[in-house]
Amino acid sequence: MVLPSNFSPAEHLQDLIRKVWNKKVREHFKDLGGAEWEPDLNSSRAQYRVGCTHLENDTTVMTQLRIELLKDIKSSSVGNYQYVFGVPKDKLDGEVAYVPQVTLYFCQKSIDVEPGKHFKEGEITFRWVEETEESITSAKIENLANKIKLKFTNPTYRWSKGKTYYYYYDKQKGYDFRLLARNITEAKRIIADTLDLRNDTPDWKNHLRFTEVENPRETFPENAGTKTVLSKSRKKPVRRPEVDVYFRYALINIPLVATITLVDLTGTRSRPVV
User: Fold this and answer.
1) What average pLDDT does range 93-120 have in this prediction?
2) Are the beta carbons of 260 and 141 closer than 8 angstroms?
3) pLDDT at residue 256, as a whole number
4) Global model pTM greater than 0.90
5) Does 165 lie in the same domain as 206?
6) What pLDDT score does 178 carry?
7) Is residue 45 in a domain?
8) Domain residues for 116?
9) Is 140 helix (H, G, I), strand (E, B) or coil?
């Protein structure tokens, strides 16, 4: 079939993108509603959906920006979390039970990040050894999500990272924390608040350890200096920087099922439990 005389390749491409791309946008934000959803700015996810949705009068630049925005949101929503296989307290008929894994994710505020620098991050992870893939329920997951929301979002929880590693290891209860913190008081606060999610109390004497470095500010300086690469002077990365990271979201990975978002303050993750 011959193309019509008034055919516009640009308009044709824009129409195709609007049909194909907006379908992807609706799918990613389906928790807000389907094609009938009325745009609003009442939540972070609503704002992202408005920003990603292609409009008929968009310029080519606007179209490209919307595509890049959704790609970025989807990449940060998926995460790189793999299944973690835990050792059960009991083995039934020789079968190995899988232990759910809970991850609390922290990140710097954008205002604190120097231009051209990457966001500093932090994770706290534990295995929910009281539960298996058979015993865990939606009600238990929702209860945990509510505890995390209460403890870590009001106000937004801050973790002051430092130059000393603090270790809290209790295999029987599924803890293997390795935290960089400013001091032991900060490390204990974070560990105690995390254990409180399971109504647990820390046993500092038997499970807390830490490694001290002589002259940590000299060993891990905040200004690591520069190095010339390809004839250009470039800043060397700072090891163990002293930064504040803030709670952003929490996940639970249930082996052979899915990774579920428990709580989300970023607006990028779909269908958080609470």
Assistant:
1) 75
2) yes
3) 76
4) no
5) yes
6) 92
7) yes
8) 101-211+243-264
9) helix
